Amino acid sequence: MARAINAIDYWRGFALVEIFINHIPGNYYEQFTHKAVSISDSAELFVFLAGWSLKFVVGPPEDPRPAPRLIAKLFHRAFMLYAAHILIVMLAIAMLAGASRLLGNSLILEWFNAAPVFYDPVDTHVGLVLLTHQLGYFDILPLYIILLLISPAIALLYRRWPSLLLPTSLAVYFAALTTETTFRTWPAEGEWFFNPLCWQLDFVLGFVLARQQGPGEWVRSNLGKIRALAYPIVVAAALLRLTDLQIDPTLMPEPHLLFVDAKSFESPIRVVQFLALVAVMSSVFPYIADWLRPIVVVFSLFGRNSLLVFCIGSLLSLGGQIARFAFTAGVALDTAYIFSGILLMFAAATLAEWWGRVR
């Protein structure tokens, strides 16, 4: 039986729909996603909710899941994500190759960091398997896989010394920021777009704030005061986005990553604005559930089947980019493609839940 509708599934589904739309750059509906008025975007929400969901895998304090079972479950989940990632990357490569042939344009083979796959296939296929080579727009699952692999350490550290988890996460985060340490790519020289050493903080924050004790308890007790501080931050970020004001990194002191908007390193300005946005939006779900019930039902369905919906959405986003390249881009094409894509994701998620009940 499917889970009852809840805020976590709804917001996860919301993030998945936004990722699908935002991964078709330039489309008409991109301006209506929350990144148009926010420094952070759906990637932060996706990772934060992944950390929040870890709470349910770990189990309640009075009845925690035994450590061997916890490790096995998290590693199994990581393997499933890895298998899904390899599958959609191979399909994406085939889509780029097919589009190149059909449209007679070899430049398509160079989209999204795919050129090494075609021009240096031996080393690059090894890199794809090792996650050291990643396609653009298909690079968040490798981050998620790393986060799941370190999840047992996060959960067991919290279980044994709960007060050490957040300081440890912050220490790793600021060490990576100040030294600009990240994961390197191979065979093409570069860096991971989502630096796990920094993005782990969003994951840990989701896990810590989901708990009933510690920082989560303090936040719930002081949520009114936190929201009062959060509203000006959210409004200021919206004004920055709407006026397209940018922070000049050359004017910032060293280490400059502490002061600029750097998505790859999940810089502090993004973390603070995201937490403020969470504080502001954490009160609206009951109203959305009452006023926009059909949307809540659909998004919650997506959230319950997040891996399937993410994989289908990622491939559809690539298809959308190819379609906008091949045909005259405009509101009509964007409307037809976006709504058809959401309908396909809905059909796949509905079929998955039906199959789950039958099985």
Task: For the structure shown, list the relevant keywords.
359 residues; globular; 1% strand; two-stranded antiparallel sheet; single chain; mainly alpha
Q: What fraction of residues sit in β-strands?
A: under 5%
Q: Overall pLDDT, averaged?
A: 94
* Domain tally: 1
N-to-C SSE series? Answer: HHHHHHHEEHHHHHHHH
- Span from first to last CA? 11 Å
The total strand number stands at 2
Radius of gyration: 21 Å
Principal-axis shape = globular
**Low-confidence parts:** none
Biggest sheet strand line-up: 1-2
How would you characterize the largest beta sheet?
Answer: 2 strands, antiparallel
Task: Give the count of helical stretches.
Answer: 15
Helix amount: 55-70%
What is the SS-derived class? Answer: mainly alpha
What does this structure look like?
With 359 residues, this protein is mainly alpha-helical. The protein has one domain (7-358). It is 69% helix and 1% strand. Strands 1-2 form a two-stranded antiparallel sheet. The radius of gyration is 21 Å and the shape is globular. The mean pLDDT is 94.
Short description:
The chain has one domain.
Q: Helices and strands in order, then pairings?
A:
Layout: H1 7-22, H2 42-58, H3 67-103, H4 115-119, H5 121-130, H6 140-160, H7 162-179, E1 184-185, E2 190-191, H8 196-210, H9 215-221, H10 223-243, H11 268-281, H12 285-291, H13 293-304, H14 306-326, H15 331-358
Helix pairs in contact: 1-2, 1-13, 1-14, 2-6, 2-8, 3-6, 3-14, 6-7, 6-8, 7-8, 10-11, 12-13, 13-15, 14-15
